[in-house]
From TrEMBL:
Keywords annotated in UniProt: Acyltransferase, Cytoplasm, Transferase
Family (UniProt): Belongs to the acetyltransferase family. RimI subfamily.
Keyword Acyltransferase: yes
Originating organism: Secundilactobacillus pentosiphilus
Record protein name field: Ribosomal-protein-alanine acetyltransferase
Length: 194
């Protein structure tokens, strides 16, 4: 009962313990992806125009999220993590994730890679970072939604170990396309390594 109250109180006031702060604190640094150097950093408000540009490039001129939605997410530092990948100061990819201790879930809210850098491992790398963070926080699963028509993305997620968990009818704003719910259980990952 006391544990439920503590979780409720933390959720109500968006209080996370020091463990969350430590795990979600990313130092900007260079990373190697398929033998190419990129710069990984926490997303900043100044990155929002480029993030919107990536969305336009990926989604046929549309921006599923607007600048205020991204700004709102970036303000919530206690339970959100947004990362960007750059090369030669060009923003190439980003990912966002919500970490919920009460649901024991890390939910990937948004991921996009500019078209001319797709199939180079950037999306795979960013999702793997979020899975690692979920594991460090001892959460049970990582979840996401993907358009039913986006078979390529579904394959990437399945290659990482995600399984289809259901369909959300009319999920996407605008065209009301269905979304595929996908989940990876952290325990299954641990067992697969043993």
């Amino acid at each position: 009962m006391l544990k439920k109250f503590k979780n409720w109180y933390r959720q109500l006031f968006q209080i996370q313990d020091a463990k969350y702060q430590d795990v979600l604190d990313i130092k900007n640094h260079e990373v190697q992806i398929q033998k190419v150097a990129y710069f990984l950093a926490k997303a900043q408000f100044t990155d929002i125009p480029e993030m919107l540009g990536i969305e336009r490039a990926v989604y046929g001129g549309q921006t599923p999220w607007d600048s205020s939605a991204f700004a709102s997410e970036l303000r919530r530092e206690t339970d959100r993590l947004y990362l960007v990948l750059r090369r030669h100061d060009r923003l190439l990819a980003f990912i966002g994730c919500t970490f919920s201790e009460t649901k024991s879930d890390a939910h990937i809210t948004n991921i996009a890679v500019v078209p001319d850098y797709q199939n180079r491992g950037l999306g795979h790398f960013l999702i793997a970072v979020m899975i690692k963070k979920a594991r460090q926080l001892e959460l049970n699963q990582v979840s996401l939604e993907v358009r039913l028509s986006n078979v390529r993305a579904q394959k990437l997620y399945q290659d990482l170990g995600f399984k289809k968990a259901g369909i959300k009818k009319g999920y996407y704003f605008g065209d009301h396309e269905d979304a595929v719910d996908m989940v990876i259980t952290i325990g299954d990952l641990e067992n697969a390594k043993a």
